[in-house]
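Write out the bound-state structure for adenosine-5'-triphosphate.
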Amino acid sequence: MESSPLLTVNRLSKTYSTAKGAPVQALQDVSFHIRKGECLGLVGESGSGKSTLSRLLLSLERPDSGEMYVHGVPLNGLTGKALRETRKQVQVVFQDPHAALNQRLPIWRSVLEPLDNYPDVTPPFLADVRPNRRETAAKLLEMVGLLPEHLDRYPHELSGGQKQRVAIARGISLRPDLLICDEPTSCLDVSLQAQMLRLLKRLQRQLGLSYLFISHDIVSIRMMSDRILVMQEGRIVDQFPSDQILSEERHLYTKQLTAAVR
Ligand SMILES: Nc1ncnc2c1ncn2[C@@H]1O[C@H](COP(=O)(O)OP(=O)(O)OP(=O)(O)O)[C@@H](O)[C@H]1O
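---
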């Protein structure tokens, strides 16, 4: 029997009003689910609504209508303690690792920020080191392929790839149920992108994480995902298991996105 969904999104819509011109309907009636341990890919060109969806799931913005549930618990309108609890369960790795890190903090302090916000949380994989903050930071860095020598460096002393590894270490540190990977490789050199995807895949298996993997790059999406959603102008126009990406049944827009790999 299939497990019940970790995340359920039901008819989500969001419109932005703009100073000039017509309002922008960023999301229209978007529905999907993610099961535990699954990587769901979300692909679409710039402006299709991918980041809007991730902001709604992170409770950074509110939808105009529709519902989101994590383990059956509604996310809409949460405040206070309930919002805090959900934020712990849904973490994110953003596109730009430089913007995600506080420039004035050494890496070991940055990597501990989520755990410092939740002092009562000890994910099982950190149980042996949690009482010691530097050991906890060192273990997190090790898990993403960084070294103890990186603990005391500042963001400007790391490469883009190393900074993204720090951002990933933060993203996994609370062992969230869902990690949203919002274009996590698009700021990196092509040579580093595959390395970063392999790291994310390994961590997913190791910690039993579920991912919403957002990208405009069909090759990364195909490599990472069990199932794929295709978004165009705020709507989901196609969804399928990733091994059916090249099927003749695909939506015309999916065929356009995959033309380069056909
Ligand atoms: N705060 C905002 N105010 C007005 N319009 C917005 C706002 N945020 C997003 N939009 C518009 O909503 C639509 C969807 O934007 P969104 O950033 O979600 O797309 P995206 O698929 O993530 O694009 P990209 O890949 O370029 O990040 C776009 O037309 C965008 O211009």
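---
The radius of gyration is 19 Å.
The chain has one domain: 7-261.
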